Amino acid sequence: MGTDLIMLLTVFVLAVFVGFEIITKVPPTLHTPLMSGSNAISGITLVGAIVLAGDPRLPDLARMLGGVAVALATINVVGGFLVTGRMLHMFKRK
Amino acid sequence: MKLSPEFVNVCYLVAAVLFILDLKWMTHPKTAVRGNRAGMLAMLIAVVVTLLPSDHSLDYTYILIGLAIGSAIGLFAALKIKMTSMPELVGLFNGFGGAASVLVGASALLAASAALAQDKIDPGMTMMVATVASALIGSVTFFGSYVAFGKLAEFLAVKWKLYTWQKAIKYGFALVTVAGALAYVIPAGLDTYNAITVFSAVIIAGIAVMKSDRIPMAGFAKLAFLALSIVAGFLVVGDPHNEHAFWMLVAASGALGVLLTWSIGGADMPVVIALLNSYSGLAAAATGFVIGNSVLIISGSLVGASGIVLTMIMCKAMNRSLLNVMFSRMGPTADTPDADEVYTTVKSTSADEIAMMVETAQRIVIVPGYGMAVAQAQHAVREFGNLVAEKFDAEIEYAIHPVAGRMPGHMNVLLAEADVSYDKLKEMDEINSTIETVDLCIVVGANDVVNPVARTDPNSPIAGMPIINVDMARTVIVIKRSLSPGFAGIPNPLFAKDNTMMFFSDAKKAFNELNAAVKET
């Protein structure tokens, strides 16, 4: 456990606080878009999946599992942002 | 050209800031579109700099296959999905995030194990703890989301006959779970870990094909699988080579995820959906610790926080604690009055009668519930609003209870799809403060959220739950197929009040008849 862990933990704790600070009051109309939008953000796992799926030094099985993770996270990212956009467009019409 | 690690990290920082702005802007109707675009841009930046070669080269085979398949499925799902199926879709997407985290954890473990064997590089405690957290939270999220999805798509824990596609998913999922576990265990050989892996998979499959939402000894089983997951977690941290313990961890926490969500249904669904949303973020944050990447940690914890905020809003709207939702069941108590006694003075009405009341009403409020979603009545409801505005120059408002429907904001999405302007949608408190001046209140397929016993009977299972006080309006019409109880399983004295009239019908049929009657007046 070195300074790296402490740095990452610091980032984690501060980000949680930022999250609670910016999302204190959400109008009910935006509850569903906020969920699907934040779900798209959680697809950021894609970055981790790409790193592992593409690392030529890793055993083949590890890269394949990474590849499946890429597919799953991409569904989240692409589907999540698009469906959120569709919903917000609906709210905006009037 | 190769990107320097410093440049890559600066790009990740820009992406993290954009993600924060995304969520900040997503909480206001005027800036929400901008917020979503900021999120897309952030994701694009993060993914592109990861794809470009930096200090080491990348082999693109699996990446491109994964990106192509994922984009195709994501595009198809997002463009084809009907707004009425939104709860299922959100439930399903939560699960994909969780599954991705499990697989990244598995991949990282194999990589660490291989590196340890070849170069004697110790992956380190941090990475191992993070891998365990990523797999545990990810697996709970994936299997829990599958259950939530199956309940929302109405093929899990139900007694009625299923369509072929529903059967295919239900039994296919159970079969794949067990077959997957066996396919791993048989070549690897049977030991204690693998036996528990298979046992957990059988439990998952066994529950997933059940027709009842009650599991015997559920409380004990939850604790047992939690304990198994934690033990497996410690074993993996202690020995990165112990791949068997890793898959035991995934299977046991999967069973935990199924058990935690299985008995939750109906009106508690919005809480679970919001909670799983939060988990999917935490799983991504844990994955960030695995690969030591701060953009994953920041965005994952933002999602975790936003999911918790929504969960708390939902719990507050039901006056229940999260623990109460997760671990106990709602239902009638010994004090609950008998339905036959409560309903002695119920009056029913017809579309023509309602049309006459509408004609003289100054202020009309519609209270939608899950029944409107089931009947897909939102378009007929909006047409009614338009007709009333044209013919009688009266404005219709919609009173939305925060937990009406099956996910946070469910009613808002449906009404927006039907083109109802969102300034007509009023929050519970706003309507309640002026409910006495409402001439006609039309309740469409809602029950517990308008049950006055929440205010009057301290022994009722819904005592203290904030409700829309429709019983205080001058006249109340309740459109409902029968007098059957809502999720709480208790009778609703509102239906028998002097100023209430029941219109027994499917919500869509009722509004079509009502619209025809209004046109004639």
Task: Give a verbal description of the structure.
The complex is a heterodimer of chains A (94) and B (521). Chain A is mainly alpha-helical and 94 residues long. Chain A has a domain at 28-92. Chain A has four helices and no strands. In chain A, helix 2 (31-42) runs antiparallel to helix 4 and helix 3 runs antiparallel to helix 4. Chain A is flat and about 50 Å long. Chain A starts with a helix and ends with a helix. By secondary structure, chain B is mainly alpha-helical. Chain B has three domains: 1-80, no CATH class; 85-327, no CATH class; 339-520, TPP-binding domain (Rossmann fold, 3-Layer(aba) Sandwich), CATH 3.40.50. Helix content of chain B is 63%, strand content 6%. In chain B, helix 17 links the parallel strand 2 and strand 3 (425-427). The longest helix of chain B is centred in the N-terminal third of the chain and has 34 residues, at 86-119. The relative contact order of chain B is 0.09. At the A-B interface, helix 1, helix 2, helix 3 and helix 4 of A face helix 1, helix 2, helix 3, helix 4 and helix 10 of B.
Order of helices and strands of chain A: HHHH
- Beta-strand content bin of chain B: 5-15%
Mean pLDDT of chain B: 91
Q: Percent of residues of chain B in helical segments?
A: 55-70%
Tell me the helix content of chain A.
Answer: over 70%
Give the CA-CA distance, first to last residue of chain A. Answer: 55 Å
Number of helices of chain A: 4
Anisotropy-based shape of chain B:
globular
Radius of gyration of chain A: 17 Å
Element order, helices and strands of chain B?
HHHHHHHHHHHHHHEHHEHEHEHEEH
How many extended strands of chain B?
6
- Work out the number of β strands of chain A: 0
Structural class of chain B: mainly alpha
Q: What is the element layout, followed by pairings?
A:
The complex is a heterodimer of chains A (94) and B (521).
Chain A: H1 3-22, H2 31-42, H3 45-53, H4 60-92
Helix pairs in contact in A: 2-4, 3-4
Chain B: H1 5-25, H2 32-51, H3 61-80, H4 86-119, H5 125-152, H6 164-188, H7 192-208, H8 218-238, H9 243-262, H10 269-291, H11 294-318, H12 322-327, H13 339-342, H14 351-360, E1 363-368, H15 370-375, H16 378-392, E2 395-400, H17 410-417, E3 425-427, H18 428-432, E4 440-444, H19 453-456, E5 475-480, E6 500-504, H20 507-520
Parallel strand pairs in B: 1-2, 1-4, 2-3, 4-5, 5-6
